[in-house]
Structures are given as C-alpha cells and as structure tokens.
Design goal:
single chain; 442 residues; alpha/beta; Rossmann fold; Transcription Regulator spoIIAA; OB fold (Dihydrolipoamide Acetyltransferase, E2P); 6-stranded parallel sheet; binds S-adenosyl-L-homocysteine; binds iron/sulfur cluster; binds FE3-S4 cluster
C-alpha cells in the first residue's frame, strides 16, 4: 500500500532546498505527494525559527488538521531542532520530530510509525554530509536550481538562532557540488544558485592538491571558477555572504566569470558601530561601506542588496539615524528588513534595554521609505534598456508573467503562451516601486 504525504515548507532558501529533497526522497521511496493536508496520511511541516511565534503558529495550523486520514504529523527543520523534546509537550499530536540534517532517514522513520513499530520518533542528530547523498536523484529539475554548498554558521550574531538550529558550519566537498551542478545542468537547469548561511566562508575539500601547495580545501572563488567551466550554465549566483568574509579575490571573480551575475546580497543589519558590536557582526559601518566602494571600483556594474534589523536592544534614535545614513551611501537595489524579534536562548534576548514595539514599527516605516527611494531610482534607470529575464511565475492578471533580471528585479510582461522557466529578452517600458514592466522582444 502507498501512503500519501503533504509538506509545507517555511523559511529560507536552504529550507526550500531541503523541502524539495524531502519530496524527492519520499517519492523515490513510493510515497505519493498530496496537495491537500486533509487527504494525506502524512502531514509534514518543515519549519523556520528565525522570528518569533513559530511554535504558536504551528500549533494553530496543526489544530486545523481535523481528518481521520492523518496518521503521522511530522515537524522538521529549525523549530524541531530548537524545541527538542518540548515539541511533543507543546503539540502532543506531533509524532515525528526531525532536525535539518536528518531527512534522508524519513522513509525509515515514516514506515516505523505507519506500521506501528514505534509511536513517536525524534532525531536531531547532525549527519552532515549524509543527507546530501540523495541530491542527485530528483523527481524534477527546475530552470533555476539551488545547490547547497555550505551549511550551518559559526558567527553567533547575538540575535540569531541559526548557529543553534543548523549547527556548526561545514562545507560540502568540491567534487560533490560539481557533480550536483553537472546533474542539474544535464537535466535542464540554466541558472545555478550556490547557497548556504555564509557562503563566502566556504572551505570545501579540494578535488586535488595543486602542485606546490598543501592546501586541502578550496575557497568559494575557486569553486565558482570550476563550476563556470560546466557547459550550459547561463547564470550563476551565490548567497548569503557575510561582510567580514568578503574578499577582494571574490570581487575579482565577477570580472573573470561572465555568467556570474553583477548582483550580490551582503547583509549589513545596522549602520551603527555600537549596534554592530552588540550584534557581534565583527565589522564597522565604515569597513562595510569601504568594501562596497572597492567592489564598485573593481566591477563598475555591480549592485547590492541587504538585510536590516531595526529596534535591536539599545538602539537609540542616533543609532537608527546611522542606519539611514548608511542606506543613503550604500545605494541598494533591493532590501529585506525586519523588526528585531527576541529569540529565546540567544545573547540579545537577555539584553535589558529592549525596544518598544511601537518604536520598532516607526523605525521600520522610515527605513522602508529610504530603501524604496533607491529602489525606485534603480527601477527607473532600467526604462528603455533591454533585459534578459528568467520567467519564474504567472502574474496576477490574465496572460501576465513575472521574471527576474540579473539584479533580481521583478519584470512583468504579457504573453499568450506559457513561458514559465524560459529566458526571454524584454524591453523595459515603465517602472514602479517594486517592479518594472516590459515587452517581449523574442
Ligand atoms: N546568514 C545570513 C542571514 C540569515 S537569517 C547573514 O548573516 O546575512 C536572514 C536574516 O534574518 C538576517 O540577515 C537578519 O536580518 C534576519 N534575522 C535574523 N535573526 C533575526 C531576529 N532575531 N530578529 C529579526 N530579524 C532577524
Ligand atoms: Fe545568523 Fe549571523 Fe550566522 Fe547570519 S551570520 S546565520 S545572521 S549568526
Ligand atoms: Fe529559518 Fe532555519 Fe533558514 S531558522 S531562516 S529555516 S536556517
């Protein structure tokens, strides 16, 4: 008998990647994917713990699953890792809890539960590389394909749960990454996204030792150069980068590798040196801005995006103004912004001078206004230019499609045919705050 499963994935691109691998491994083991949780034997939530109330929300979502069909409710990923045994106390209907490095074991665990061999299973081990063994067996390959090259984080920013949920940083061996990229390209991928929590501290096992050198690992720039020799890749990206690990060598690779997009995500979080220190980011605002300047000197067409946190404990009006000043100088094409969210067991949660929610909201609104000013500027700059875009999804209106250009800006176009997953040349005709509008040229 075949059992059906429903999966809902929250969180970052690493979670999306894991979620797809979970689908692959279950389908390859005879389970059937189901889109309605009420019709599924197995309901899986693959969770994110980065901001608050994750367990609360999960509890109410699971509460809504009232179906006689449900045999297993599984919670996986970062919430499972952070909650440990508590997950069973807080949501008693959960009978399987699995951490982000254990999903290759799911078929075995699900069979044990479905056949009554066990009533409850929890696995929070870090099997590290083992989970990637299934990465070259996929049920489908998308045109834009994400490849995890590194996982975990050793930076311990004082607000962040990732070092506790994803564990210590480790890099996949170069040969494993290359084989996965080759497999993806052979099966139709054209855009490759090299991903991880901190990709520019990548140090994967070298495929060979270069004569005259005893280095046993490769850095990300060496990995990128090797990947760029694989035929068939049209676009290459990497994310996320930590400012302190961003090297001149990596900047230079952008000039050497034509398919590497001129767009980099380098989150800064705050423009105040005091706050950056309290966050344990290991750089000052000036050091960060100097890196952007150097990068622009080396690659004049490079553009940047960033993440921001407003209302970190102890952030004064003056600190916040420093963030606005940094935004003005940095000139981002795209940004992501968050109100500081207290995460239990992180150092910042214990800081006494927490900021009032109302102040956080006011600061967030001001920050968004400043960031949109640059975004609108860059969107307007595109009007009249020709852009190659990768169509990623359907738009809201009939015959409307949304694609991304090399700067990850959303381009909206009309087409009578389904053009999802194709690269298309477009002429940009007008711009708005969050996107630009174009017409197809080919
Ligand atoms: N490794 C990446 C980011 C991972 S988390 C980096 O260091 O850049 C993605 C973003 O979530 C972070 O950049 C940060 O802006 C935000 N974030 C993380 N913890 C947060 C918290 N406790 N409250 C609000 N935002 C947070
Ligand atoms: Fe979190 Fe900082 Fe690591 Fe990013 S670098 S994952 S923000 S601890
Ligand atoms: Fe969330 Fe875990 Fe990613 S906490 S942001 S899913 S690493």
């Amino acid at each position: 008998m075949s059992y059906s499963f429903y999966i809902k994935v929250y969180g970052c691109q690493m979670n999306d990647y894991d979620g797809q691998r979970i689908e692959d491994i279950l389908v390859l083991n005879g389970f059937i994917k189901e889109n309605n949780p009420l019709n599924a034997d197995i309901v899986i939530f693959y969770t994110c713990n980065i901001r608050e109330k994750a367990v609360h929300k999960l509890e109410s979502t699971i509460g809504m699953i009232k179906s006689n069909k449900t045999k297993v409710i599984a919670v996986g990923g970062c919430v499972a890792q952070a909650e440990k045994d508590n997950i069973f106390k807080r949501i008693p209907r959960v009978n399987l809890s699995f951490g982000p490095s254990t999903y290759h074991k799911l078929p075995e665990y699900l069979n044990d539960l479905l056949h009554g061999k066990k009533k409850r299973i929890i696995d929070l081990n870090n099997y590290r590389l083992e989970k990637f063994d299934i990465s070259n067996k996929r049920k489908e390959v998308t045109t834009s394909a994400y490849v995890a090259i590194q996982e975990g984080c050793d930076n311990f920013c004082t607000y962040c749960v990732v070092p506790y949920t994803r564990g210590r940083e480790y890099s996949r061996p170069v040969i494993d990454v290359i084989n996965e990229v080759k497999y993806l390209v052979a099966n139709g991928a054209k855009e490759i996204v090299l991903g991880g929590q901190n990709v520019n501290s990548y140090h994967g096992e070298a495929p060979y030792i270069t004569i005259g050198s005893n280095r046993k690992t490769w850095r990300i720039e060496e990995l990128i150069k090797a990947i760029s020799t694989i035929d068939g890749i049209k676009r290459l990206r990497y994310l996320t980068s930590h400012p302190k690990d961003f090297t001149v060598e990596l900047m230079k690779v952008h000039n050497e590798v034509p398919m590497l997009v001129p767009f980099v995500h380098i989150p800064v979080q705050s423009g105040s040196d005091k706050i950056l220190k309290l966050m344990n980011r290991n750089h000052t605002a000036r050091e960060y801005l100097d890196k952007l300047k150097l990068f622009r000197d080396i690659c004049p067409d490079i553009q940047f995006s960033s993440d921001f946190i407003v209302g970190f404990p102890g952030e004064t009006e003056e600190d916040f103004n420093d963030t606005l000043k940094l935004v003005e100088e940095a000139k981002y094409t795209l940004s992501f912004y968050f109100k500081y969210s207290v995460r239990p067991n992180t150092p910042a949660a214990k800081m006494t001078n927490q900021i009032d929610e109302k102040i956080k909201e006011e600061r967030l609104a001001k920050l968004i206004k400043a960031l949109l000013k640059d975004q609108v500027y860059y969107n307007n700059e595109l009007v009249g230019t020709t852009q190659e875009i990768l169509i990623t999804k359907k738009g809201k209106r009939k015959n409307q499609y949304i694609g991304k250009n090399v700067y990850m800006q959303s381009v909206i176009i009309n087409s009578n045919e389904n053009i999802i997953d194709q690269f298309k040349t477009t002429l940009i005709e007008s711009a708005s705050e969050n996107c630009v509008f174009g017409k197809l040229l080919d």
